[in-house]
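Open question from group meeting: does this chain pack into something compact, or does most of it stay loose? Before anyone orders reagents, we agreed to write out a predicted structure and look at it together. Recording both the input and the output here so the notebook holds the full record.
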Amino acid sequence: MRIPISLVTHAAIVAMALASPAIAQAQDLRADVARDMPSLMELYRTLHSNPELSRHEVKSAARMAEEARKLGFTVTEKVGGTGVVAVMENGPGPVLMIRADMDALPVSEQTGLPFASKVRVTTEAGVETGVMHACGHDTHMAAWVGTARRMAAMKDQWSGTLIMIGQPAEEVGAGAQAMLDDGLYTRFPKPDYALAFHDAAQFPAGMIGYTPGYALANVDSVDITVKGVGGHGAYPHTTKDPIVLASKIVMALQTLVSREVDPQSPAVVTVGSFHAGAKHNIISDEAKLQLTVRSYTDEVRDQLLSGIARIAKGEAIASGLDEPHMPVVSVRRDEYTPSTYNVPAFAERFAKLATARFGADRVVQAPPVMGGEDFSRFYRADKTIESLIFWVGGAPAADIAAAAKGEKTLPSLHSPFWAPDAAAVIATATEALTATALDVLKK
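Structure tokens returned:
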């Protein structure tokens, strides 16, 4: 008997769907996300046009709380300042926490987008500046809302507790700890899993990157005040020049990484600022250095910080300074961000799921970077949690093509020119977050 090709095709599709419900569900999820994209893009444009600096995310937090409340989440606002915690309990099972950060940067936007930010504020330090979502947190919030919508609509497909948090003050490394200090793990169900994503300027739009193990660095800000004995520039022998001493310290600091840290352990010591003196012919009595120090392990971090203090004091002694004139080394505890560790088993589980869903050409294992992320604190607070932050590429295809021809330089995160392919980021992240949540909370 000859069977019409149309019937063969139809029969094969039905058989495939029956044999693999996951494939049918994947297609349904992608279609549902696509239908939601117009409203998510409208939300994204609103958030992009109305950015708020760290600790001031009042309107952004209110919008996220409103969206979650409409979906049936139990919502608590003002956690750790402006943080949002939305909880949906849906039977027995694991507890999964999904985070989006909400704050923008003191950057004047130059993207040329029709909905570009025109917001200007005066910072807490008294500096007037433009404000921009130059790190893509607006895409994070939009995907967070998209994921919340999908999970609320698909409650029959999962069991457990879903916690969606809108986190403030990521850019200053303070928001995660503020939420933890305000009872995130005691006032609300403590997560078994923690999940987040970040848009990426280094990947093509829609590509997914994951990193098992250490993914982002310990970040420390260190101030060194180098003391000296000032005087006339024509009579240096009557002084103890802090500029010369500070210069010796800068050069000696480079040996920390090159000669003291194991070459297989990544580390960075960068002197980003050197200030001293005010006039050509005056030797000042003080110089100030500002450093950024990066590492992955706590052991290397301790080695670097103790080494900085030792070198500063040692160079001062070698320059003939007495105890009252020893340099003062201060580690800015308020700016410390611990390294981000992706639990390898969870990272590999995610990679397998993402590869099956998006294809091997869209999923790549990415090397760790020396940037910082305070998402790390949620795992640091309880290392029994399975934690993962992954990347979603945002570089527009046209920009990548132009850069390949030498016609364009691709902007980085924090650039006033960073304008990701927001639709690709939001759609990909929403689908990836939702699919991972369904897998973690599967019945």
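Observations to bring back to the group:
The CA atoms of residues 179 and 408 lie 41 Å apart.
The chain has a mean pLDDT of 94.
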